Amino acid sequence: MSIPFRYVAKVGAYLVRQQLLGRKRYPLVLMMEPLFRCNLACAGCGKIDYPDPILNKRLSVEDALASVDECGAPVVVIAGGEPLLHKDLAAIVEGVIARKKFAIVCTNALLLAKKIDQFKPNPYFTWSIHLDGDKEMHDHAVSQDGVFERAIEAVKLANPRASASPPTAPSSPTPILSARRPSSTN
Ligand code: SF4
């Protein structure tokens, strides 16, 4: 995936600032999991086995943005569980963007068509759509047939210029689409 110039410049400036301040250790990416609930049940997932009282918990917008302010990292990756199940995800993303930080939403994309209108294209916003390889590999990884095709449709919806054989590196600044392995961070 190509890295947009704005991203390189902002993160680079942050790194230089930390060096000038003499800091040896500093946050670069905040990994936020505003919920553990998911609409998939991948084999071996470390999140969905939690009991319902934990799966029913949601990080509030206020607490999510307070953590962004406290951490100070220039990049905020929002995963889960499935973050699109969080009814206030768009408000969290807007708050991150308002702080001029990069918001990256990691999703299995099953709800993307339903929710995409809640998210305005922005140079500070990226969709990271979970793909594990070809149809056979992906559907096997997520333990459900048809998920690969839905993810591909979501890629095309989020970026009409994406080809029919993603993952690819789109040339437009937003939305940026990437593929990643499934893990307990989604
Ligand atoms: S691995 Fe990710 S996509 Fe799969 S069930 Fe767990 S949280 Fe959901």
Description:
The protein is of the alpha/beta class and 186 residues long. It has one domain: Aldolase class I (TIM Barrel). Helix content is 34%, strand content 10%. It has 7 helices and 4 strands; from the N terminus they run αβααβαβαβαα. The chain has a 4-stranded parallel beta sheet. Strand 3, helix 5 and strand 4 form a beta-alpha-beta unit. Helix 3 packs parallel to helix 4. It starts with a helix and ends in a 28-residue tail after the last helix.
Distinctive features:
single chain, alpha/beta, TIM Barrel, 4 strands, 34% helix, disordered C terminus, binds iron/sulfur cluster
Summary of the model, kept short:
Helix content is 34%, strand content 10%. The protein is an alpha/beta fold and 186 residues long. A 4-stranded parallel sheet has the order 1-2-3-4.
